[in-house]
Amino acid sequence: MKLINKDTDYAMQAIIYMAESKEGVVSVSEMSEKLEIPKHFLRKILQILHKKKVLKAYEGRNGGFSLAIPADKILLLDLIKIFQGPINLIECIFKKKICPDIRHCILKKKIDYLQGVISSELKSLSMASLSYRR
């Protein structure tokens, strides 16, 4: 099980890079080179973040992207939801054959509890808190 996929990882790296940058607008080429992320993957990820209003996009010769909201307001949990959907640690592995009443399943209750703990911890992680320049 992967908690963070490649798209989410690239998004995190790009947002942290923009947050640490002294430039207002950062080009895709610059980020691609510095972060060693393939340009076409990075551009796709940044466009998704722009559509979700996490980034602002600028066209033209000096175009690129900048943060639309402060890095301390961009949560890891939100990025996971954007690129991976909601966190779901379990879809009933027993199905109906063995477990006819999911409401009383002890394993599901434990995993639901763990899912709540993980979500809570991820809500406490902003991109600013993950930055090297705190």
Characterization of this structure:
This protein has a single domain, classed as Winged helix-like DNA-binding domain superfamily/Winged helix DNA-binding domain (Arc Repressor Mutant, subunit A, Orthogonal Bundle). 50% of the residues lie in helices and 6% in strands. α1 (6-20) packs across α3 (39-51) and α1 (6-20) crosses α4. It has 134 residues and is mainly alpha-helical. It has 6 helices and 2 strands, in the order αααββααα. The protein has helices at 6-20, 28-35, 39-51, 76-84, 95-98, 106-123, and strands at residues 55-58, 64-67. The protein starts with 5 loop residues before the first helix and ends in an 11-residue tail after the last helix. A two-stranded antiparallel sheet has the order 1-2. 19% of the residues are buried.
Which class of secondary structure composition applies to the elements? mainly alpha
- N-to-C terminal Cα separation, in Å? 30 Å
Rg over CA atoms: 18 Å
Number of helical elements = 6
Question: How would you spell out the order of helices and strands?
Answer: HHHEEHHH
Secondary-structure topology with pairs:
Elements: H1 6-20, H2 28-35, H3 39-51, E1 55-58, E2 64-67, H4 76-84, H5 95-98, H6 106-123
Structure characteristics:
two-stranded antiparallel ribbon, single chain, mainly alpha, 134 residues, 50% helix, Arc Repressor Mutant, subunit A, 2 strands, 6 helices
